[in-house]
Specification:
Elements (H helix, E strand, L loop, with lengths): L1 H19 L9 H16 L5 H7 L4 H14 L2 E3 L6 E3 L1 H13 L2 H16 L2 E8 L2 E8 L21 H9 L2 H10 L7 H13 L2 E4 L6 E9 L5 E10 L10 H16 L4 H4 L2
């Protein structure tokens, strides 16, 4: 019996030790993850690079990077320019990127993020897209701070008087924007409005305070797709007395971070996604 008791105690010890071990994530292939850093560098920079520069950006030696580059070139994930010897993304990588863009659904992606965004911002948030009649709200998510605004799915957004509308006025096709603005009694040529749109293009942030409704303010940011086209506007709406419109404030920072993430997932050029 002593042997049986000892075996039982050993088994209990083994189970206890197993419970104490930290939970590990799915096991991957380290060499693939290491080599993948080279692909990430090319995707991030968007240009062909010399071996030494590519290796340095991926934080590895050229000798370590070279075998990965050879394999990636064989697969078509990379290609080497015969004249300069520089490396760039290959045809397979481009095909994979195009397929990913075709599968991406910006509306579905944005709507899935709204509940968490509303809690992070602390105010009601919305997503809008372009329709034949101008920008329309397609989803509203209430936040902790309530605001009494008649805004629901399908509500149109004024191009001149809403933060959402001004995003579309700033980044949309002027040929489509001009007639709708004219219907509102305004024009893209109004000096003050034209200056405001230029500031929005530079900052990727639109703000309104007590414009459409007294006591209500809003901020909005653009989301771009892989072709650099505006696809969505995300906005936060709240009472003017509490909602800060400061670009360095929490609402603006949270909105812009969310817009950057969505734009990157949609394949937007870095100059747009990181603005």
């Amino acid at each position: 019996m002593p042997d049986a008791t000892r075996l039982l105690n050993d088994a209990r010890f083994s189970l206890d030790a197993a419970d104490d071990e930290p939970t590990r994530g799915p096991r991957g292939i380290q060499s693939v993850e290491v080599g993948g850093q080279l692909l990430k560098v090319l995707a991030r920079t968007g240009r062909r690079m010399a071996l030494k520069d590519l290796a340095r950006e991926a934080e590895m030696t050229a000798a370590k990077a070279h075998p990965y580059l050879v394999s990636f070139c064989k697969l078509g994930l990379m290609e080497q320019d015969r004249a300069s010897g520089h490396y760039g993304l290959g045809p397979l990588a481009i095909q994979m990127g195009l397929i990913s863009l075709q599968q991406a659904d910006p509306v579905r992606m944005a709507i899935a993020e709204l509940p968490a965004l509303a809690q992070a911002v602390g105010y009601t948030v919305s997503v809008a897209m372009w329709s034949g009649q101008g920008p329309i709200i397609i989803r509203v998510e209430e936040g902790p701070t309530h605001v009494y605004v008649a805004m629901r799915h399908g509500t149109p957004a004024s191009l001149r008087h809403t933060a959402t509308g001004k995003i579309f006025a700033a980044f949309g096709d002027p040929a489509r924007i001009a007639p709708l603005l004219q219907a509102e009694g305004h024009s893209l040529d109004e000096p003050a409005f034209a200056q405001e749109l230029e500031a929005i293009r530079a900052s990727h942030l639109s703000v309104v305070e007590n414009q459409l409704l007294s006591g209500v303010s809003a901020l909005a940011v653009p989301v771009f797709d892989g072709f650099g086209q505006l696809v969505l506007a995300i906005a936060a709406i709240g009472p003017s007395v509490t909602l800060t419109l400061d670009p360095a404030g929490l609402p603006a920072q949270k909105l812009q971070a969310q817009a950057r993430q969505l734009s990157q997932r949609l394949g937007a050029p870095n100059t747009l996604a990181e603005a």
